[in-house]
Each structure stands twice: as structure tokens, then as C-alpha cells.
Amino acid sequence: xxxxxxxxxxQRRAAVPHAPLSATGILLNPLGLATSGASIGVKEGGLxxxxxxxxxxxxxxxxxxxxxDVDISNLGMHQYLRISDLTTPQGVKVLDDPDRVVVGITHxxxxxxxxxxxxxxxxAEAVPTEPxxxxxxxxxxxxxxx
Length: 146
Fold this sequence. Notes:
Layout: E1 27-36, H1 40-43, E2 47-50, E3 54-59, E4 68-71, E5 80-82, E6 93-94, E7 101-106, H2 117-126, H3 140-145
Parallel strand pairs: 1-4
Antiparallel strand pairs: 1-3, 2-7, 3-6, 5-7
């Protein structure tokens, strides 16, 4: 029996075989997004942050696009694109919230600054280099008193 789950090969099906139909015969289909262009914010050291990778769209069976291209070339640091900013092919209607963020540019994780020399010296004095070993049994002085 063949496994019908989608594979992680990067390829998408043109239409989901069990996609629900609306009352007008229009397919309700998930559709992948693909970025195009080189972002200004990424060139400045930012990270491309995807919030949405698939959109739920409504279209006729003969109008299903392979994917929706998202142009990120004008995105700078701390800028983002919403679903309402995307251009979709004619006859394709996005069903998701138009105010939802699709992709944005964020800062890379902040680097930790080195501690001041005085603080580092005080910390080194406070932490012993080796643990204190406490012997078991009686001390030699206690043995001689008996």
C-alpha cells in the first residue's frame, strides 16, 4: 500500500486530490510561497523571518498557480510584508487574514559584551579553583587524646 502523505522533497502538487470544493465548484487549496530578490535588510546583517509558508486560496481548477512569488528585494531591517501586500494571479483569492505577516527582516541575536576587568577579577577571586576536600573519620589530634 502506497503512503499518500506528501514527501519533503520541495515539490508541491498542483492540486490536492481531496481539496474541498465550494458551492460554485471553486477549489479551496493550500498554496506555497517562494521568495525572490535579495533583501536590503539581509545584506545589512538581518535575518529573513518567515511567519507563513502556505496560503489558503480559492480558485478554479484550471487557474491553480504553482506558487505565489514574494518579492523581498525592498525589505529593510525591521520591515515586513503582510498578506495584503502580496500580488496574486488573476482568479486566485487568498482566504487567510490580510493583516497577517508573511515575512520580515529581524536582527541577528545580540552578542554578549565582555565583562569589565574589575568584575572579572572579583568573580575569579570569589570562585575557588578546586573544591575543599574534607577527610572522613577522626582527626589525628583526636586520636592522640584518647
